[in-house]
Amino acid sequence: MDKGQKSAEKESTKGVSAPSFIPQIPSGRNSSQYDVFLSFRGSDTRKAFTDHLYNSLVNIGIVPICVFRDDNNIPIGKEFGSYILDAITCSRILILIISENYASSKWCLRELIHIMDCSKSTSHIVLPIFYKVNPSHVRYLKGSFGEAFHSSKEHFDEKDIQEGQRALSEVSYLNGWESEKFANGHEGELVKKVIKTVLDKLGRDFQLNVTKHLVGICDHVNKIRNWVDTSANDVRMIGIYGMGGIGKTTLAKVIYNGLSNDFEYRSFLSDIRETAHCNGIHHLQNQLIKEIEPTERQIWNVDDGINVIQSRLKGKKALILLDDIDHLNQLNALARDRKWFMTGSTIIVTTRYKAILDQSEFKVDYKYELNELDEVHSLLLFNKHAFHMDHSSREFEDISRGIISTMGGLPLALERANSQFTCGRTVDFIQVRELKN
Fold it and tell me: What pLDDT, on the 0 to 100 scale, is given for residue 326?
């Protein structure tokens, strides 16, 4: 290979997608180590559109999105190629940013070929972006896109040329975005659309953790979902109240998970009562702002936090869960006014005190009281925890019913009693009463 060929080979790998960090690629071909893989031509979009999209992806949402993108420190050559192809295989969503010079890179073509092969499986999602190029030019190798490809063919293997042309034709038929046509060419709007699509596709991976042993919750969920579904043209606040340990947080999480795919902006503030006591309400305001729209600015007082929340939430349809509020000033500092939120936003509040919901300046739309489980559901929940089945063995049936009778229908108390029961300890009713209190 002469000097010119070496230079071309080096350029063909420069700017090709590589990870922003270098973890170990798992050997299993079905593993998903990355949420998103970005395939792009570095010389075209690295410092502009791709950089904007990458930073928006990794900085949005409650759970960080793991994105594979450009890094010039990745070694080139055979090891480089194997690393890239493995990363594609181990990614859930494959985003192709097909720009003018994309097909002039041998490695971009190899990425594309592998991506189109992966698209034939159900475990991969391919999202093409035709960045300032026409899909028909990609399909028929016309215009400046075709010129870039043909001018670089002398550096390609014959296999790359043939399979590359096939892959380019295939991707041109996929439903994607044309940057020049979407939102009249406003790239910021295109980035927002791509982000929303990615979050929708990854929605199941960003669910709040809920216990597997759910008992008697379906009726509650259906009633609250009916409220939400019938008021989609307004901002709404739903309050769930009841004694401690009754299952308010679990119910709210189930509702939140069921709605989450409809919202690009989401926030879950857990255990507000304890967090506000230990760290102050401004700490919760910082968390809310960070999850909705990350910023380096730190909030040090509640009044400043209110102003920033209003500014950051303006124009954003958000889903917010405020868990275990025990004072009105906490609610007012986080969601005091309906005008803070965009139409369609939903705020879910859990509290032990109905008075907080009654006195809220927001004017809570729906208030739902959660009561204790009845005897049948209490026994079912206890048995699921203690025996991993819907019923207890005969030798423990009497003591199980005795525990249920003593504990009442508090899910948390039943779980605590079960932990004592399954650890092989002697459980008498005095211990059970102590657990309940």
Answer: 96
pTM listed for this prediction: 0.60
Q: Is domain 3-203 annotated with CATH 3.40.50.10140?
A: yes
**At residue 252, what is the residue type?**
A
Q: How far apart are CA 141 and CA 153, in angstroms?
A: 12
- Which helix (H) or strand (E) segment holds residue 278: the answer is helix 272-279
Domain extents in the chain? 3-203, 232-369, 375-436
Question: Does 3-203 match 232-369 in CATH topology?
Answer: yes
Alpha-carbon gap, residue 406 to 427, rounded angstroms: 12
Q: Say which amino acid occupies 333.
A: A
Q: In what order do the strands lie in the sheet with 125-130?
A: 67-68, 34-40, 91-98, 125-130, 177-178
Parallel, antiparallel or unpaired: strands 318-325 and 265-269: parallel
Q: What's the distance, Cα to Cα, between the start and end of the chain in Å? A: 80
Mean pLDDT of 395-413: 55
Give the contacts of 105 (CB within 8 A, at least 6 positions apart). Answer: 11, 12, 13, 15, 16, 41, 152
Nearest to 407 by CA among 387, 377, 384: 377
- Judged against a pLDDT cut of 60, whether residue 68 lies above it is answered with yes
CB 325 within 8 A of CB 331: yes
Has 79 been annotated as catalytic?
no
Out of 111, 170, 264, 415, the active site residue is 111
* Per-residue confidence (pLDDT) for residue 412, from 0 to 100: 47
Q: Is 351 exposed, middle or buried (0-12, 13-18, 19+ CB in 10 A)?
A: buried
The CATH code for residues 232-369 is 3.40.50.300
